[in-house]
Amino acid sequence: MAAIEAENLQRTYRTHTGTIRRRTKDIHAVRGVSFTIEPGELFGLLGPNGAGKTTTIKMLITLLIPTGGTARVLGLDVVKDAHEVRKRIGYVFGGERGVYERLSGYDNLRYFAELYGVPARLQKQRIEELLELVGLKGREHERAEGYSRGMKQRLHVARGLLHDPEVLFLDEPTIGLDPVGARELRATIASLTAAGKTILLTTHYMFEADALCDRIAVISKGEIVAEGTPADLKRGVEQGSVVEVEVYGVADDAIDRVRRLDGVTAVAVEEREQAQVLVVQSRSELELTSAILGHLDGGQVGRVSRREPTLEDAYVALVGEE
Amino acid sequence: MSTLRLLAVAWYLQFKMILRSPFDGFGNVLYPLFFATTAFFVFRAGDSPRTLIYASLGAAVMGMWSSVSTSAGSAMQRERWWGTLELLVAAPRHFSLVMFPSTLGLATVGIYNLAATLLWGRFAFGIPLTVTHPLLFGLSIVATVLAFGGLGLLFAVSFVRFRAAWVLGNFFEYPVWLICGFLVPLALLPGWVRPISWVLAPTWGMNAIRESALGGTPLPDLLLCLGLGLAYIGFAVLVTNRVLYDARARGSLSLT
Q: Containing domain of residue B52, as a range?
């Protein structure tokens, strides 16, 4: 039995515009997403903002009713068996919300231990273990309002694990964390997989997905555009090559001209302090460096380099230049 | 057993949060004093100690009611702002079991309101504090707190579905003072208002508190208050699943 199964999952939101002349508009956030996650697998859901990652997760954790398709967690339907699903899953999201700031970290965990039906005789020991695991031991009796973002995030993780769930949903858990905090959290996630948990992780960070995930699905505009192991996805672009050009104040029409070059498969612009970096993916047999530079006429050009594609390039090629 | 434990722990932690809120605390300390002062000035013209005690008890329950009606809505709104509402819904325990301790915590703050109003009346205006049936008086207060908690739960559940409904909490504050006879006897109100008063537990809680303090037969009122309070809780439990399904279908749980 698969741990998580989504079959043609869809979610449409109805929104209204106008005050006097009210018009309804349907927003298709998720348009028929299907995937299967096996027990013990760490599955990554990657996609840009608004791609439908969080909506997909919220349908799987029973917070949203799908408008189409079906989903099962541990063989249980997320709509019909919502109560049973909730007992078996943990949910952790990124950011500073979701914490009772006026309570201590310990009281937060104690409250949710009750809500998740952790037996009274096990609660103390379980909370102690989790405080140790997430590195909050010694700070647990301080009010959560004084915690740093990273500490709140670790408190979220501990909360999600209180009832020792078989399946864990992590929605951008490292967002906004400093590099050390993010690295520690990644190590915690890796240890959970080693302990046999099934994890569905969403993240923006390619290296994180590359390092942690057994398989990845890339979601864009509510649809899955690619699925496979990180190596599979990289293979999809490894036949190509990547040219990076450091530019200062490049015009949009110049980027469009580069994009239209024969053999170019994807173009992305990354902001780096005063400069921008134009990342141009192309078919490997082509040498396009001089053609690219030719289209950047008038703009100040810095360092130019050519490299092998990474998972991030694969991601950019898949989701397009949004 | 685990349900009772959940209710007790959740009530304790919710109460702890309320006590740690400086603004809520400030309001809770000052409001009862205003209520007691207003009641005294309005009713001293009657020049009867019994009337003053009647008004003083009314003012005390007014404070309790204000604490529940205005705070139940804002408590739910706070859960939305804090991003904890989704976590409460995603928990396997029945949502009404999660919310009831919260509204009960607010009603418990009302006990302070009651005590502060009576003491202020006693020491600032010399309104005597005599209780004919102390045990029934205590039970009447407990029943009123439970009934207020139940009514607060009904409010809270409706606030999950209707995001702007927390404003209604404020709206209900003043009419209940009047309709439930906190300051003016129900006999003075038009006949058509009475059926509304009868289905509102605060009416019977108020009667029970007065009857037990001033001497009378508070037991029927106490039982009616308790019965209605339990009916509110039962009704809230019954509609919770429907309300939550609707909120999940509309995708409104994460909205602030």
A: 2-250
Under an 8 A CB cutoff, do A63 and B92 touch? no
Closest-CA distance of chain B to residue A102, Å? 6
User: Smallest Cα–Cα separation from B14: which of B94, B102, B143?
Assistant: B102
pLDDT confidence band for A322 (50 / 70 / 90): very low
User: Looking at the DSSP assignment, which residues form a beta bridge with residue A218?
Assistant: A46, A226
How confident is the model over A9-21, as pLDDT tens digits? 999 988 877 777 7
Are B13 and A107 an interchain contact pair (Cβ–Cβ within 8 Å)?
yes
Q: Which helix (H) or strand (E) holds A267?
A: strand A264-272
Closest by Cβ to A87, choosing from B92, B98, B253:
B92
How many other β-carbons are positioned within 10 Å of the β-carbon of residue A19? 6
- Name the percent of chain B lying above pLDDT 70: 92
Are B63 and B31 a contacting pair, CB within 8 Å? yes
Q: For residue B23, what are the contacts with CB-CB under 8 A and spacing of at least 6?
A: none
Q: Which domain holds residue A175?
A: 4-228
User: What single-letter DSSP state applies at residue B165?
Assistant: G
User: How sure is the predictor about A238, in pLDDT bands with cuts at 50, 70 and 90?
Assistant: low
Query: Could you give the number of structural domains in chain B?
Result: 1
